Amino acid sequence: MGAAHTRHISSLAARQILLRNGRWMLRPSGKGLRCFSKIAPRWQADELQRTRNIGIIAHIDAGKTTTTERMLYYSGLTRRIGDVDEGSTVTDFLPAERARGITIQSAAITFHWPPEEVSTQGGGESPSTVPEQQRSAVSHTINLIDTPGHADFTFEVLRSLRILDGAVCILDGVAGVEAQTEQVWHQAGIYQIPRIVYINKLDREGSAFGRTVKEVASRLGGWPAVCQIPWLEGGNGRFVGVADVVNLQGLLWKEGGDGKSIKVFDLKQLETENSNLAEELKRARVALVELLSEYDEDIVEKFLEQDEDHLAVSPLDILNSIRRCLVEQGNKIIPVFAGASFRNMGVQPLLDSVVNLLPSPVESPDPEVSIGGIKGSLKQLLSGDLIVAQKETTEVKGKQKKKAALQSESQSSIEKLQSCALAFKVVNDAKRGVLVYVRVYSGSMDRNCLLYNTNLNVSERAPRLLKMYANDAVEVDSIPAGHIGVVVGLKHARTGDTLISYAGNKATPPEPLNTLQLRPIDVPPPVFFASVEPHSLAEEKKMQESLALLLREDPSLQVTVDEDSGQTLLSGMGELHLEIARDRLINDLKAKASMGRIEIGFRESVTAQSPAVTKIFDKEIAGRKGKAGCTVVVEPFDAAKAADTLGPPSEHILAIKVQDGNQIIILSPGLQVSTNNKGIAESPLLPTGIDVTTARNALYNGCMAALARGPQFTFPMHSTRVTLTLDPTEHIFGNETTSSALSAAARLATSSALRELASTSSTALMEPVMNVTISVDEDSLGAVVHDISSSRGGHIVSLDDDQGVPSSEEEATLVDPAKVYAPPDPFETSSSSSSSSLGASLPGTANRARTITAKVPLKEMVGYLKHLRSLTSGRGTFVMHIDRFDTMTAQRQKAVLAELGGYS
Ligand SMILES: Nc1nc2c(ncn2[C@@H]2O[C@H](COP(=O)(O)OP(=O)(O)OP(=O)(O)O)[C@@H](O)[C@H]2O)c(=O)[nH]1
User: Where's the Tr-type G domain (predicted)?
Assistant: First the structure.
């Protein structure tokens, strides 16, 4: 082994960033101290190609945090390796996360790989040319988003996914592909995010690289491109390193070290030192080149140039080929790497692969946008095409304008756009206040610019911009397109909001820019809720402020105040979701409040049409007289068949909108609506100061408030249509008709119509029904299916063995497992070696993984994990998301109500 050389991947002393008296200092290795008031921003335009915005996706406990900590350490960002088990990691920085040892909140961290001082300078690629050296020879900026792994946080995962250009999927080499990994993998597929797979924990007994590769093929729906194979001591013993299929090298880590010292063996050395591994490496190389030739013409050419010698194709040609496949063809092929992060093995080559294989922001797919209800891509928007299309559809009935005139009108509106960004995370930082993490998609977000929030329709300034390094930050003057940064000092922006800046000093951007949305997502309804009570009246204000902050961080939480009982209810996606919210509220934000029992969010619905109910509200509100009326009819509504539009007000129809499973239609015949020169819809029949939109919103909010509280059990209404009519001659009373009075009238009339139906038993209770995907071994399949269908009242939708290919994906590639290359696992190797007894003790490959898909009432899934574990000797896992709300049978309703207690 003497001929192998040792490579020190990163020098620890090389990059220490220290904060002294509020000044940033950078200490290059071996040199004196240099002081900077701030580190010069590294995001120059030409650096975009050397940037990777990536995320780590995985099942809970697969090792995301452990791997991230090593990445930060090897990049020189931290000086010691954090330990999840000790609670000292950098990325899991919420106290609640540290206590639970799981990642709750996405944190974005910037670091450089390879560290700047060990890479050669210059020579970075440009998007149009292929580099002449591996990209990992040059330092790149990596913005790493640590995504959460628990099913309750799916929306946090989705929100993080939208802003990524690439992802590393970490698998546990013992557990293989788990249900949740599969789910997140396919969600990333929706956004066409190129992904590579890292099989971790290969040091653990029972880990099986080959078996996991096969699972990648069958469950993730792509061809595994095995880029590394494990190096096991003596061929079947401890995991000591990896053999690199691309570079035809063996990488051997020093046992027990911090992983920086790696012995590198070329193929010749491997052939003499470890011929079995060398042979397997050659087989893997043949398989890799063959696989790439299926998808990439260029590699076929290189292969022919090399006289069809798989081993002679250059590593750079192979990397470029994999990259082309990933970027241009989606994940038809899935590059696979090996490691054991906890033992400090495998992380540096993984980082090289992030740089070498995953795309820069310039190469990632054009993001979807919506503007004025029209969908398209950002490029189309910026070129003006999208708005032209919109104007063509809306103006088709009115005066026809020439296409050229439309084009110049939309161009001038789009030219005003200076930047657009997505706020993907809001974090309340004890030291710096509320931090809003943004990904900028076009233009450049400058310090102090006015940002318009198109979700909330508010403008606010961006007083400070930061670049984040875990818990440390560097101030910058701007965040250009393609980059990730933090805005400090925003008062309104929430996770998921689109923020734009535009030319001119107007408080709102020109239409339709004010409706621009980047990669919009639908958040499903929350299915659990709990009451939140302040300890005293004096604590109420602080509690509400803390709740408001929680909602900015995580808009998949909802807060409602029951206007009759005054009770505050917090709703969320899962029990753990609400438990974490409670922790945040009480322990982190220090609200003096307590949370009641976590309960299932049932819904109420109507089964018949109500008579028309007219109500005139006539009372003082906050010392001012208010009088207004309206007529309401309530009836059953089927959301699946409805259009969701809240178009511009017309003469009769002020609004048609579907929200939370209900539909609200607001009519006002004879209102004489016209649009003034400022583009505002007005009516001479409305009192002064109230335009049509204000009246519409007031009525709409009144209906929504009434629907939040069902007439029989106080659960929110669902599958209900409210048709509200505002008759200007009967329901408007001059200046006494304030917007609060309109809202109160709408609420009164809707509640009263609902009560009418309750009095004739024309209401029903609905329950959340979940779409459940369960992963079990063949052995436990029968017991689990029986339990779901008989004890839990579930309906089995399908039983797939592991050959199934996911549906509706851009990459639904049919993979024949028999044709997938995977190196043999130790227990599969010939029985002549001493490994046969070892093989017998490892989990058998004959016990196939099976996937059960079922629809089950949520109530029957509470506490299911524990039960599943007991049915499957601890190996079963499941994920679920809401499918629909379903009306209960009379018998089930009776049983559920009896259990809930308090209802008769
Ligand atoms: N043996 C072994 N254990 C590992 C390895 N990587 C991680 N672990 C352990 O696996 C457990 C989970 O690791 P984490 O890094 O917290 O996993 P995670 O995916 O971040 O988990 P969440 O934050 O809960 O989503 C910890 O106890 C780690 O020490 C590995 O390579 N080998």
Answer: 49-362
- Beta carbons of 113 and 140 less than 8 angstroms apart: yes
- Name every residue whose Cβ is closer than 8 Å to that of residue 537 and which is 6 or more positions away in sequence: none
Looking at the whole model, is its pTM more than 0.80? no
Ranges in the chain, pLDDT < 70? 1-46, 82-107, 117-131, 146, 148-156, 387-411, 469-472, 641-651, 677-679, 801-813, 827-848, 901-904
Query: Residue whose CA is closest, atom 12 of ligand 1?
Result: 61
282 vs 276: CA distance, rounded Å: 10
Ligand 1 contacts CB of residue 749 (under 6 A): no
In Å, how far are 376, 384, 774 from 415, measured between CA atoms?
18, 9, 50
What's the token pair of residue 714?
A: 């106080």
Do the annotations mark residue 795 as ligand-binding? no
Nearby residues of 93 by Cβ (< 8 Å), 6 or more positions away? 105, 107, 470, 471
State in Å: Cα 757 to ligand 1 middle: 55
**342 pocket-lining for ligand 1 (C-beta < 6 Å):** yes
Counting from 1 in the atom list of ligand 1, the atom nearest the Cα of 97 is 23
- The one-character DSSP state at 896 is H
Distance 898 CA to ligand 1 centre (A): 43
**pLDDT tens sequence across 460-519:** 999 999 987 655 678 999 998 998 889 999 999 998 899 999 887 777 787 778 888 888
Which of 84, 93, 199 has most ligand 1 atoms within 8 Å of its beta carbon, as the pocket-test mutant? 84
Spatial distance between the Cα atoms of 354 and 250, rounded to a whole number of angstroms? 19
Q: Output the CA 394–ligand 1 centroid distance in Å.
A: 54
- Structure tokens, 264: 């590198």
**Nearest Cα residue to 566 out of 551, 544, 591:** 544
- Distance CA(385)–CA(783), nearest Å, equals 57
Residue indicated by tokens 């149009």: 128
- Closest ligand 1 atom, residue 345 Cα: 31
Residue 666, both tokens? 């607001």
Domains and CATH numbers, the chain: 1-48 (no CATH), 50-357 (3.40.50.300), 528-600 (3.30.70.870), 608-761 (3.30.230), 765-827+834-900 (3.30.70.240)
